[in-house]
Specification:
Oligomer: single chain
CATH architecture: Beta Barrel
Strand order of the largest sheet: 1-8-6-3
Largest sheet: 4 strands, antiparallel
Order of helices and strands: EEEEEEEE
Distance between the termini: 7 Å
CATH superfamily: RNA polymerase II/Efflux pump adaptor protein, barrel-sandwich hybrid domain
Number of helices: 0
Helix content: under 10%
Shape: globular
Length: 81
C-alpha cells in the first residue's frame, strides 16, 4: 500500500510556507517510523520532518528549494500491511 506524506500543521499561525532545504532519505531507502525524511526551514527556524510510518520511500514530490504549505504532498511511502 502507498501513502502520501503531507506537511502537517506546524502549530504556528504566522508560518504560511516553509522551504525544502534538502532530502535526508533517498527514493528506494527503507525508513523506520520517526526517521527523518527531509529538512525544512522557515524564516526563523530549521527542522526535520520524520516518517509517520515504517516503509520505503517510493517517490519524492518536492525538490530542494521548493516552497510548500501545510497539507502539500511531500513524498510517497510504500507501506507493508
Amino acid at each position: 500500500m502507498r501513502i502520501e506524506v503531507t506537511l502537517p500543521d506546524l502549530g504556528e499561525d504566522s508560518v504560511q510556507a516553509v522551504t525544502v532545504s534538502g532530502w535526508l532519505a533517498k527514493p528506494g531507502q527503507a525508513v523506520r517510523e520517526g526517521d527523518d525524511l527531509l529538512e525544512l526551514t522557515t524564516d526563523k527556524a530549521a527542522f526535520t520532518l520524520p516518517s509517520p510510518r515504517p516503509g520505503t520511500l517510493a517517490q519524492t514530490l518536492v525538490n530542494e528549494g521548493d516552497k510548500i504549505r501545510v497539507g502539500d504532498a511531500l513524498c510517497v511511502l510504500e507501506i507493508q500491511e
